[in-house]
Design a protein that fits this description.
By secondary structure, this protein is mainly α. Helix content is 56%, strand content 3%. It has 22 helices and 4 strands. It has a two-stranded antiparallel sheet with strand order 1-2. Helix 3 crosses helix 12 and helix 6 runs parallel beside helix 18. The longest helix has 24 residues.
């Protein structure tokens, strides 16, 4: 059931682990390869050190594998057979971690907001929804089924199992002509046009489906999906740890934060509430700010190990199927500690004017590219995309697919080729 695909895979000539096949398809896909040219937090080209969306995905895959490995020791087959049986194997959880961001557009979350603005009247844009679209429609391993991954891998990739039309709140959007996009953060969702694919993925959950795809109203914002599968919860834990710890490493290495800021905004909070990490925070601080790569990496390793060992499995009591009812979680105190780490990075890196200026610049390029291409599709869309555009009744979703699939550098060069008089040639190969 869980290793089934939309379309049966070609016989390899030997008995193959289907989740291993998923992992291989993801790694060798063009969408995964392009992640090396997409912004994680800091804009590409500022340094050759920090993480891209590709290295982030590799780390999420490894962290997810580490969490699953730890949970199997915590919930042994002898003592917790039901939980042990559900914990995803290495190929499965790594496949989910590797693929979880392949739908993200250029220029990070800023690019996601820009595309949602451009698609505001055409069912929106959301990075995780685009991931599912690539995996089930656009990927190159089948004619119409995308990467054609197994049902369980696809289930693990769905972080927000609610359709766009059930969660979007268009009242929060304001007509700004693309100059200020602050109110255009996308709802967390799956595209309405992917409903058939979602129905197939959720086919085993006959009695749980409607509850699983439900959402919670959120005054003045988009509604929020409530649930995710067990595998997806583990992937999200890995994603959160990567954001809180690995992005912190980049910030320190690039000297965007210093020890005084760290002590004031992190250490003091941990010591004040006397979190469990308080016992080791001084030693970790010395390693982080030693100025040596090796000692800093040792501290990062200790922090990652600390959070992995704080993971646990809880039962919601909301679903008949255990794959939906069990969830991976951090214990409460560790969750609060990780929040302190993430807030530190957001406040002192992501939100600073220097980073926001670069993000805004990327947004404006995407908005303008979308506008000019949508008004001149025959002239500006690559041939294969234009053929799809016409075949799908001039659907703007095709233009969104094209721009979302570009790297930061490709989108920048395309922008200059179209708008900068001295740039561009018929001999260019973007």
């Amino acid at each position: 059931m869980w290793d089934k695909r939309f379309k049966e895979a070609t016989d390899s000539g030997f008995k193959r682990n289907e989740f291993s096949r998923d992992r291989a398809r993801i790694i060798h896909s063009a969408s995964f390869r392009r992640l090396q040219g997409k912004t994680q937090v800091l804009g590409l080209g500022e340094s050759d050190f920090y993480r891209t969306r590709l290295t982030h995905s590799l780390e999420v895959a490894q962290l997810g594998s580490g969490i699953a490995e730890f949970l199997k020791t915590k919930y042994s087959e002898a003592d917790h057979p039901e939980i042990f049986k559900l914990i995803p194997e290495q190929n499965l959880i790594e496949s989910i971690g590797l693929a979880h961001d392949i739908g993200h557009p250029p220029f990070g979350h800023g690019g996601e907001v820009a595309l949602n603005y451009s698609m505001r009247n055409d069912a929106g844009f959301e990075g995780n929804a685009q991931t599912l679209r690539i995996c089930t429609k656009l990927g190159e391993y089948s004619e119409d089924e995308g990467l054609n991954l197994t049902r369980r891998t696809l289930l693990g990739l769905i972080k927000y199992p609610a359709l766009h039309n059930t969660v979007v709140n268009k009242l929060i959007y304001s007509e700004s002509d693309g100059i200020n996009l602050d109110c255009y953060k996308p709802p967390k969702c799956i595209y309405d046009c992917e409903k058939d694919q979602l129905d197939w993925i959720l086919e085993p959950f006959i009695n749980d489906r409607e509850k699983f795809i439900s959402s919670q109203s959120n005054d003045g914002k988009h509604a929020k999906p409530i649930y995710k599968s067990f595998d997806s919860s583990i992937m999200e834990l890995a994603d959160d740890i990567a954001y809180g710890v690995h992005d912190l490493e980049d910030a320190i290495a690039l000297r965007l934060v210093d020890e005084a800021m760290w002590r004031r905004e992190v250490v003091d909070k941990i010591m004040d509430i006397k979190y469990p990490m308080a016992r080791n925070i001084e030693d970790i601080t010395k390693l982080l700010f030693s100025g040596e790569n090796k000692t800093r990496k040792r501290a990062i390793g200790q922090l990652v190990n600390y959070f992995i060992k704080k993971t646990k499995v809880v039962m919601l009591g909301d679903f008949n199927h255990k794959l939906l009812d069990y969830q991976g979680r951090l214990d409460e105190e560790a969750c609060e500690e990780l929040d302190i780490f993430q807030d530190f990075v957001v406040r002192n890196v992501i939100s600073i004017p220097e980073v926001q200026t670069l993000e805004y610049k990327g947004q404006q390029m995407i908005v303008r590219l979308f506008d000019v291409i949508s008004n001149n599709p025959k002239r500006l869309l690559p041939k294969k995309y234009y053929e799809r555009y016409k075949a799908q009744n001039n659907s703007l979703r095709v233009i969104s697919d094209y721009i979302a699939g570009t790297t930061d550098d490709y989108a920048t060069r395309l922008y200059h080729k179209i708008f900068t008089p001295s740039s561009g040639s018929i001999f260019d190969r973007l």
